[in-house]
Amino acid sequence: xxxxxxxxxxxxxxxxxxxxxxxxxxxxxxxxxxxxxxxxxxxxxxxxxxxxxxxxxxxxxxxxxxxxxxxxxxxxxxxxxxxxxxxxxxxxxxxxxxxxxxxxxxxxxxxxxxxxxxxxxxxxxxxxxxxxxxxxxxxxxxxxxxxxxxxxxxxxxxxxxxxxxxxxxxxxxxxxxxxxxxxxxxxxxxxxxxxxxxxxxxxxxxxxxxxxxxxxxxxxxxxxxxxxxxxxxxxxxxxxxxxxxxxx
Amino acid sequence: xxxxxxxxxxxxxxxxxxxxxxxxxxxxxxxxxxxxxxxxxxxxxxxxxxxxxxxxxxxxxxxxxxxxxxxxxxxxxxxxxxxxxxxxxxxxxxxxxxxxxxxxxxxxxxxxxxxxxxxxxxxxxxxxxxxxxxxxxxxxxxxxxxxxxxxxxxxxxxxxxxxxxxxxxxxxxxxxxxxxxxxxxxxxxxxxxxxxxxxxxxxxxxxxxxxxxxxxxxxx
Lengths: 248, 220
Hints:
- The structure holds two protein chains of two kinds.
- Chain A has helices at residues 4-24, 34-43, 45-79, 81-94, 99-110, 114-138, 142-150, 155-166, 168-192, 198-207, 211-239.
- Chain A is an all-alpha fold.
- The two termini of chain A are 18 Å apart.
- Chain B folds into two domains: 14-54 and 128-220, Rossmann fold (3-Layer(aba) Sandwich), CATH 3.40.50; 65-127.
- The relative contact order of chain B is 0.19.
- A six-stranded mixed sheet of chain B has the order 2-3-4-1-5-6, sandwiched between helices.
- Helices cover 37% and strands 15% of the residues of chain B.
- The chains are: A mainly alpha, B alpha/beta.
């Protein structure tokens, strides 16, 4: 039952797309209809799967490493006033540099392999996780902290057993955002320089005027993103024990 | 600090093993006195001396941790300090407040009265000689409040209790010593005779309640 509404909505969107293509008579190398894209997916499923798995690996690695770094940073700056003083401005300033601009440099430094894409994903994931979790750690209800203090808990114990568990819903918000951002980082990395991955496949298909294959790669990327997002959502519900998880 | 003086010099001593109540309108600094005794931040400067042993603290907000069940909330103090909690004692106390059936539930599934009972057990589990109560019953409905007052008197027997309240009826019902704190400072009032919890409709309680109410009104 819970799949019916999204399926129906998707079907409507696809039908609208196909009708648009038929009515306007637009050339298939400008905008292929969903039927053409579907055919391309069937025809090229092997290369789509191969490149998709590469992108998936980059996304999962980038997400894991970026989230771990973001979590560590958030705890560190929430705990130490000195770290807050020095790291918070750097953190905010780092966001002023567009990740896109760094992609060529990363490729120059780390070559055409997996690592520059993973680093791109890490960079794009790091900030939303760190900032959402830090926000949560910083807004622990005063009453909880007072109670813990009267009970004789040390600052470390308060961090571990009060502030961190109380911030879990905020961490989950950051991780959900990160799950959607990570594929962006990976694909940007692939565009700048690679021989594998969905981003590479898109450029390749576009260069050979195989627009239907390009769209097929976009569709696979979208599915991949939705799947990663669903996995993160499930993990958050399972392990972060949220009482009231937001729907999205 | 550039702020205002919250209150002038005041001197308060609690009788050991008895309930002392500070009654007053909102915003005169009742909770600040309690926070000072508990050793918490007050957002200001304090000059003077506080001689208080280890305390346990219970507020109007039950402050139950939503991610812990009733039993884990009851032994929160031990959990926070990394000690081994006395689960048997916690279970016995949870039984005494009538929540054995809810022992594995999380706070969001409990009623306000049930949550405050868990907070009561958590306060008891701290096993401190002095107990500070910051309007712990004021958010409850009349029936739950009366029951909670009786339960608290029963469980906290033999301990030194400082109760902050704005309710003259509560003060008259529970206290062995009553102070009024308002703009005029802190002053002692007569508490009714007899052991707490006194009956809500006891003549002496009603008289005391009337006198307290008059004093509060008169000062305003």
